[in-house]
Amino acid sequence: MKRLMIVASSVVALGGMLAGCSGSQSLVTPDVAPRGVPLSRTAQTLHLTLSGETLSASNASVTCSHHGFDYYASFQASGTAGGPVDGTFGAGGSWYWVITSSGSHWSFSEEFSIKARRHGHRVTISGGISGAGRGSLSCTAFDKSGLTYTWKNGGGNASAAITYAGHFSNNFQ
Description:
Blueprint lengths: L1 H17 L8 E2 L25 E4 L3 E7 L2 E13 L4 E14 L2 E16 L2 E14 L6 E11 L2 E10 L4 E5 L1
Parallel strand pairs: 1-7
Antiparallel strand pairs: 2-4, 2-10, 3-4, 4-5, 5-6, 6-7, 7-8, 8-9, 9-10
């Protein structure tokens, strides 16, 4: 037991000595500000918004499977972010739908991360898009508006279009 305590206290001491040695001082995310900059100078102070943002790619990969009347598709994409926050993005998620005696029901879920430079700071914005409804879908495409996006500074309405042929588009309002 003493040996574990010595190792643990040595790790804590080492961590304390290395604090401030990382190269992340210029990195600003909605959660972390650089050393010496109050947290109030993060994404909110930089006046970041996703309203009007578009994510687009031509390299989306879609995988689909089904069992009976249950269908599931997953996707991954990376590409260009344009609008208020220009940069690059990565996204992944899935859509699911089922056909029942009361009709077709679907749900959609996506996680995205946008990397950009804003006012001299590198910024990473992470969030999600989700939605559910009635109607039919297919394994080869998802194209819906009326979805909802969320991130640390807020949210709003969004649309998503993803095809088996590789097209990917998100629009934030």
